[in-house]
Amino acid sequence: MTSRIGIIGGSGVYDPGAFDLERRVEMDTPYGKPSGPVLVGRMYGAEVAFIPRHGESHEHPPHKVPYHANIWAMKELGVDVIISPCAVGSLKEEYRPGELVLADQFIDFTKTREYTFFHGPKTVHISIADPFCAEINALFHQEAERLGIPTHLGGAYLCIEGPRFSTKAESRMYRNFAEIIGMTVVPECQLAREMGMCYCSLAMVTDYDVWKDHPVELSIVLKTMGENLHKVSRLLEAVLPKLSSRECGCASAAEQAGV
Question: DSSP strand E in the chain: where?
Answer without folding.
Answer: 5-9, 19-25, 38-43, 46-52, 81-90, 100-102, 105-109, 151-153, 156-160, 180-182, 198-207
